[in-house]
Amino acid sequence: MLTGERLALRPWGPADGPELNRIVALPEVARWWAPEDFTRADDEACRYTIVVEGAVRGLVQFYEETDPDYRHAMLDIFLDPAVRGRGLGVEAVLLLIRWLFEARGHHRVTIDPALDNEAAIRAYEKAGFRRVGVLREFWRDHADGVWRDGLLLDLLRRDLPG
């Protein structure tokens, strides 16, 4: 378990699934995150449940590129809209990034939100991420099937705030 000032990241477990499924189905989250069953493990991602005051409030996950010449980690996160606006997403992302740098030896982390997800982009930039470029027609919107642009951001270990 990774512990921050106001939240903890605990390894995901199937018991977290029902609450994560409820959160991801909320319109504010479902707009950006395709439907998925969080009672089942994901073979590709390493998932952590975001816990605030003992309650499941979201999920952060990472993938790793293990080729030594391209080694880095990639993040995804969603947070219950009921706790947004308190800096918890930034805290969760930074907690995981510090662990990825210190324990996993990464020097770079990327994240790739939808280009029009302005609130998420502001939060990632508060965490220290920098814009790298636009990923044209990067993701297919599950609501209408239209290909939409994404924004690639990265954070280097040397640029980590604090």
Strand proportion, as a percent range, falls in 35-45%
Count of helices? 4
Structural class: alpha+beta
Q: Over all CA atoms, what is the radius of gyration?
A: 15 Å
Mean pLDDT: 95
Number of strands: 8
- Sequence of strands across the biggest β-sheet: 1-2-3-4-5-6-8-7
Specify the biggest β-sheet.
8 strands, mixed
Shape descriptor: globular
Structure description:
- This protein has an eight-stranded mixed beta sheet with strand order 1-2-3-4-5-6-8-7, with helices on both faces.
- Helices cover 23% and strands 35% of the residues.
- The longest helix is centred in the middle third of the chain and has 15 residues, at 88-102.
- It is α+β, with helices and mostly antiparallel strands and 162 residues long.
- The protein starts with a strand and ends in a 6-residue tail after the last strand.
- The protein contains four helices and eight strands.
- The model has no long low-confidence stretch (mean pLDDT 95).
Task: Name its key features.
single chain, 162 residues, alpha+beta, eight-stranded mixed beta sheet, 35% strand, globular
